[in-house]
Amino acid sequence: MRAELRFWRLLDECEKLTQDEGVALSEQDFDAVRRIQACKPGFFEELESLGRQLGMNLRESPVADRFRELIDAEERNLDLASRMIERMNGERREMGLARQRMRELGQGYRLETPHQNGFCTHG
């Protein structure tokens, strides 16, 4: 009975971690995402091990329903992270192009105070 209780608690924790990861991604809190990602493999490995030990059938409810919801949430997080990475890669390319344009402008145009001579002096 103790292993079954541990299984359900771990499943609750995995669901909470996945939910927290979604929030952290949407808030762009990448330190939190990193911490969550570091925890998840251990939780999922233990959950899988306990499930096998208990003879859990992933095709039967309520386990199947909860796992399907968990997988769906994980896929949403992965999709969000992929879109963010794609967008950030685009921003990085744009920054590289802007840096190159600034360098080219700086090579052809110097922002210096012109030398004052009698011809340019007013008044």
Question: What is the topology?
Answer:
Blueprint (H helix, E strand, L loop, with lengths): L1 H25 L3 H25 L8 H46 L15
Helix pairs in contact: 1-2, 1-3
Quick rundown:
The chain is an all-alpha fold and 123 residues long. It has helices at residues 2-26, 30-54, 63-108.
**How would you classify the helix and strand content by structural class?**
mainly alpha
> Looking at the structure, what is the overall shape?
rod-shaped
- Helix-strand sequence: HHH
Range of strand content? under 5%
Termini Cα gap = 97 Å
Number of helices: 3
Uncertain parts: none
Could you characterize the architecture of this molecule?
By secondary structure, this protein is an all-alpha fold. It has three helices and no strands. Helix 1 runs antiparallel to helix 2 and helix 1 (2-26) runs parallel beside helix 3. The N and C termini lie far apart (97 Å).
Which terms summarize this structure?
single chain; mainly alpha; 3 helices; 0% strand; rod-shaped
